[in-house]
Amino acid sequence: MAKKRSKRYRLAAEKIERNKTYSLAEALALLKDIPKAKYDESVDVAFHLGVDPKQSDQMVRGTVSLPHGSGKTVRIAVFAKGTAADEAKEAGADIVGYEDLIKKVQEGYTDFDIAIATPDAMQEVRKLGKILGPRGLMPNPRTGTVTEDVVGAIKEFRKGRVEFKVDKSANLHVVAGKASFKPEALEENIKAVVEAVAKAKPQSSKGKYFQSMAISLSVSPSIRLDAYTLIK
After folding, report:
1. How many Cα atoms are found within 13 Å in the side-chain-facing hemisphere of 114?
2. CATH of 76-157 given 3.10.50.40, 3.40.50.790, 3.40.309.10, 3.90.45.10
3. Residue 61, strand partner residues
4. What quaternary structure, including any partners, is listed in this protein's UniProt entry (predicted)?
């Protein structure tokens, strides 16, 4: 049964040629032109990658520092103790703890967007893998969320560093800003996303890496792009 779309979505779809591959400038102009929701929607970048996520050496995961931020206020949790915990609190982490925070998460608390841990804390934080992993919140050295420099990591995520990770179907989504951003800011953010995902290509991946790419608002049809035209 076909999904029933809103009038706003259908009006937006009429403006977008479904099978056309747009330039980034054309796509951003379309995003500004299509009907908007009553809230400031996110601008999402979606890829289908030529990797096999079932193979451990073809997992695509990393972070990208968006030049103009994501427009999203993130809640940051830090698993640390001693001096590192004190520094995390001073740096503005929303919640800081070790055994107490681990216990709280085990009881169901996951009201945060980013989890950072010091390397010595990971011995116990690993026990939260089944809770944090499916939510994309598990600290990982590849995303800079397992680090001795918790202050630097907090500052980077506050400025607009976002994580990305390919899913089981080889799709990857990244938020690149808000609909209210100027086109120039969205252009720089989207190019930064493409560059970061390109650099994260596994060496074992063969063939065409970017199978497809599209941008969209939170609730809008997708606009197709060619990722290879955006790589320096």
Report:
1. 27
2. 3.40.50.790
3. 165
4. Part of the 50S ribosomal subunit.
In this prediction the pTM is 0.82
Q: Give the Cα separation of 225 and 67 in Å (integer).
A: 21
Q: Using an 8 Å Cβ cutoff, are 68 and 188 in contact?
A: yes
**Residue at 189: amino acid letter:** N
Q: Are strands 21-22 and 223-225 parallel, antiparallel or unpaired?
A: parallel
- Residue written as tokens 């804390």? 121
- C-beta separation of 161 from 64 below 8 A: yes
Q: Where do you find CATH 3.40.50.790 in the chain?
A: 76-157
Return residue ranges of the chain for CATH 3.30.190.20: 17-70+161-225
Residue 146 contacts residue 140 (beta carbons within 8 Å): yes
pLDDT per position as a tens digit, 14-32: 999 988 999 999 999 999 9
Which among 64, 34, 19 is positioned nearest to 212, based on CA atoms? 19
CATH class of 17-70+161-225: alpha beta
Q: What is the pLDDT of residues 120-171, one digit of tens each?
A: 999 999 999 999 998 889 999 988 899 999 999 999 999 888 989 999 999 9
Contact 69, 204 (CB under 8 A): no
According to DSSP, the residues that pair with 162 across neighbouring strands are 64
Comparing CA positions, the residue from 147, 202, 145 lying closest to residue 172 is 202
Angle (CA) 84-175-204 rounded to 5° is 80
Retrieve residue 88's tokens.
């995390």
